[in-house]
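Lay summary. Proteins are chains of building blocks that fold into shapes, and those shapes determine what they do. In this project we predict the shape from the chain. Here is one chain we studied, written as its sequence of building blocks.
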Amino acid sequence: MTLNDRHWPRLAGAAALAVGLLAGGLPSFAQELPGEGKTVRYVSSDSLGANYVQDQILIAGLEKLGYDVQLSTMNMSAILQAISQGDLDMTGDINWPQAQPAIEQIADQVELLNEGTIIGGGINGYVIDKKTAEANNITNIEQLKDPKLAALFDTDGDGKANLNNCDPAWKCGDVVDFQIKEFGLSDTVESVRAKYEPLVAEVFARVDRGEPILLYTWSPSWIVYTLKPGEDVVWVPIPYDALPEGVSKPKTHEVKDVVGCAGGQNPCRMAVGPWNWRTLANKEFAAENPAVKKFVELAKWPLETWSEWEGALGKGAKTNADMKKIADEWISKNQAEFDGWVQQAAAAAK
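And here is the predicted shape, written in a compact code that computers can read:
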């Protein structure tokens, strides 16, 4: 089964959850599962990433709390509409602040349940291969105004740089298209928007042939886990902060201590500011399920863990079974922490 076929119900665990009272040395007692007899209609986005591993861990926690979880997959526009209408209950795949403008439009019907599941957040920006960057002293995306530099990244013979961009439905693609115009690159740089994974496959094919590459991407991701910043590629800063209308504007695009920033710049002015994965739920569902809210608030992982998950994707993990295996391995290695999240979530439902 492929990721886009992920439409199947998951059976809830039947065992009772024992919640221990630590204070005063009181003995543990059995407690009715807060999710017993309830169903969670959980939805993932249709773009491959370590957020799929996160989703499997969140689902495992919900099942431990007694919920029957039904998982489906669709594009983000459909997800937001379905959750706001109450046709689905929740998703863990909200890229924030990229999705902020769209969510503000449905704020009366939905609720964000956490601040982010990547501890410290992630970054987005422009990447080129280190060899080309250093050979041509490219340290800022604005330098691609130079037709000679832009032609280094021409893949279709028209003389323009081909910049592999995001899916047509993604806000990040709108950011890239806006910045190409804003920084005066329209005559020398062409935005290539299509399904992201095939575009990245083309990037890796060019890497294998030793050809220059130019793309928009993010970290943590399996792409930069495979093409390592500072070793294989560099992040190329933008000349100044600039975002289109309808995209949430951070205080600054500058991010400190970015590994592999072109020319060793620190801070590195990224295409957008720091981002994170947040969890969104139907507001009525969230109010009726405090255990779900609490579990989601607690579940978060350091950047190193996310990078490991992304690395597994880069090595070929693609199926539902792959994602669940990675999730189960993390749970097994971190059982006490996972169980602690479940116990606190169960207690929140009292």
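What the prediction tells us: The longest helix spans residues 51-64.
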